[in-house]
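re: that chain from earlier
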Amino acid sequence: MILIFSEEADTSTSDVVNWFRYLKIEFKLINNLYPANINWVKDGLVIEQDSETLLLSDVKAVFYRRGNMKFSPDKINFVPLNVLVQKEFDNLSEIFNYEILSKKSINSFNNSTVNKYIVSDKAKKIKILVPKDYIITSVNELQRIMVDTPKLITKTLSGSSIIDIDDTKFGVVYTKLITKKIIKKNKIFQPTYFQEYIEKRYELRIFYLAGQFWTMAIFSQNDKKTTVDFRNYNFEKPNRTVPYTLPKDIEEKLQILMEELKLNCGSIDMIVSKNLQYYFLEVNPIGQFGMVSNPCNYHLEKEIVNYLKYGEERIFKNY
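^ sequence. v structure.
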């Protein structure tokens, strides 16, 4: 039995599930929309959700995509007791996560997000090229930095670019280019993440799984709409994308970084500069991989199923 944690309408999850069905591999998909309970029976821990039960000892591997388990106690009309009961449920969640981590898995609840600044710092220590980055709160400091670094980009420190409003998702934050001309003086703002802007030949989207890399080059610099942020898609004239092979030394450094971050899966963003240097931008442990899989015919969804079912030795093989 393969256990999958995800959110409703996650396309990558649906594509992986289709392979499970095609290969007739038993799986259970847990959606975070519904509250769940855990209980102990003679044979071990049981997950109960939406009138279904699953014995955790039957689970051989776990695929974590998104979301989290909701262990919600019934409310009691006595606030201090509610606080105590919630603490008990928090400990149940900790036990649940402990049991899940004992399984073979692709990522987990514990490492579904990473800190962009900390990841960049770790990459630098591994001798991976990273654009200069800053966290700034005033225009004066921004102008001082731009004396030596005249072009900066800004992006969210969390990596999130989507907000929910009345159960509707909106993409509101793209990477933006900051130049001296658009800065107004004497302004204070919230702590904001800035990064040196590197002119690129092309950018790379890399899917990593258990020591293997699948890379796609995107020629986003050829379109003004996508030069700064590929996500600002041009649907009328999409960017050219092609399969790409990373240099061996870059793969080795990225492998060290992923091990340092305790990630066995993730989507990595890099750019290749005008002078052919490789710059690391960020890693998303649960990034969408269909955008790499489909154009390059990598069949990453099947590779994921192979790993969960058989282990590392069966990746790249048609079972």
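The first helix runs from residue 11 to 22.
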